[in-house]
Fold:
Amino acid sequence: MHFADFVQIRLSATSLLLFTILGQTVIMGFAWGFTGAILYTGVLTLPDNVVHLIVEHPTVLTLIVTLIATALSITTSMFFTFALKEALRHHLSGPSITLFKLRTAIALSRPTWVLRWRFLKLSLLTLVIYAMVTFLSTSWSTLLLPTLVEWPVGTFGTELDLGSAAFVNQLSTDLTTPNATSVQAPAFEVLNVLTLLSGTAAVDIQEGVDTSSMFSFNGVSYNQSTGGVLPAIQEYSGSSVPPGSDVGLAFTGGQVPVNTSFDWGHLGRDSGTQGISKNYSITQQGLTANVTCRPINRSQNTFTFIPTAVPGPTGLNITFLTWEVVANCSGNLNSITSFTVGNANGQANNATDGFLPTVVCPDPNSTAFNPYKFNIFMSGLYKYSFLPTIVCEVTPYLTTISVTYNGGIISVDRIGTSSGSTTSSSNFPLSQYIATVMNYQASSNQAVTKNTIGDFLTAYGTSNVSVMYGELEDYWRGIAEFSSIQLRSGYSTSGVPSIMARSTSGTMYITTYGWRSQAHTYIFLLVVLTVIWGAIILAAGYSFMQEKITASDDDPSFDFSDPVDLIIAASGGRLESQLCDDDENQEDHREDIIVRFEDVTDEMGKRISKRL
Structure:
């Protein structure tokens, strides 16, 4: 159907061509502008309310985009067909052409395709035009259909720097005050069980099998171990209860403020976008420890435990044993006192009773304490006799790690080597505090007939000594990391002064619906759309030039692609005689017959039709 008839507007061909150019230019501008916005922003997202509708009604999205793509495709196809048909109408009104070229012109104006090996170039031209026009709907659907995208948004903020001189000085002051022990004791008692759990959760190989545990502190869930990091994201910050006066060394739980902001860049209008889900990857300061457990070297160290028996109440047939446990590490001493029970003869039941003396050496409160490393002496007795006397060397250090926040869980990448000389003589208070927590936990694990860590080792296998060593190494490392968390939390509750702060950075990834920059795909789509737009402009320009040359002598009402118009034109010409005279054995050469459109005029010289 003729474009002018379709729109039902009686306009000249020139006006319709101008409208075609304008309309297709607007469509092309939209395509370029939309694609440019995607390429410029990297990710173009939909508002949250629209995303929620898409999640609830996913098929509606496909329907709407398909309708829009179809409308744009049909409009572009109409513009292209009309411009090309007008150009071909002017061209066919000129010199003679072969029947195959006429067929090619008809195919181009449909558009459809013809295939003749004798006319390969013209056949390929029809195939290319047909493919591009047919590809229009797919192009628009691909360009307009939003998909699930992961939108990266930069984050920046600050956190407490455990290695800063200001913090180390403050911690040193707090640890050396006369009432330091009375301040720490309630916190140690409250966190006793959590400290134990932090160690056992950090064990990733139990009885030779990889395991995965969760650890929770202050409303924050960690995957296995804390890594020594505080949450840097508000929704992962845990408790919202004010800590009151329990800050610093006395901290046992409560709200810890987060100082993290987001860099929305030139998409500031999208700040606060929630999308479908979010996860974060933040670079933060962590604290961990290298722990190495091995049998005691008795040429340098000794570990003794001497019991003193005290008879129990008459008739109970038990004896109370007071153990003086002494560790000597290269001439430096530390000791603890433990209590167990035995039978009337002071002997323990090897099947049910266990004693696992554990001591940190040197004494964390002595001047001989080494901030670079310290030792933990352990030895199993009675039912824990499977564990020989060993020494675990602990080297705490600060490091920079990548922390992942996803699904309400904080995961810390396995920490490798130290990021620098962060644990030095100036960090004496930090190492001292970690050693104090370990020493307290070592003594609190022992009950009168059993030891918590001894039972843990018993439950997860005692046949492989190297596996036990690995479990103990993870256990003490987990406690070192948790002790730093408790310290960070206590000194961050009231805000972190700038002289104690360090910067954090990372990325928030928002999963939502939108468009992601895919340069190669979009460039290919734009090439198709631009070629069609260029063809429309060229065809319309050719028509304008021919209009000036022929002074509008062509008949715009004649449509050479309309079968009825062609039949009428052919019946008025001499094509039938040429077809009858042609050799039937040369049917393929009929397409070589040369034809020409001529005007048919009335007696007054007025053009009334065309003939072929």
Observations:
- The longest helix spans residues 58-92.
- Confidence is low (pLDDT under 50) at residues 419-425.
- The CA atoms of residues 116 and 128 lie 14 Å apart.
- The first strand starts at residue 43 and ends at 45.
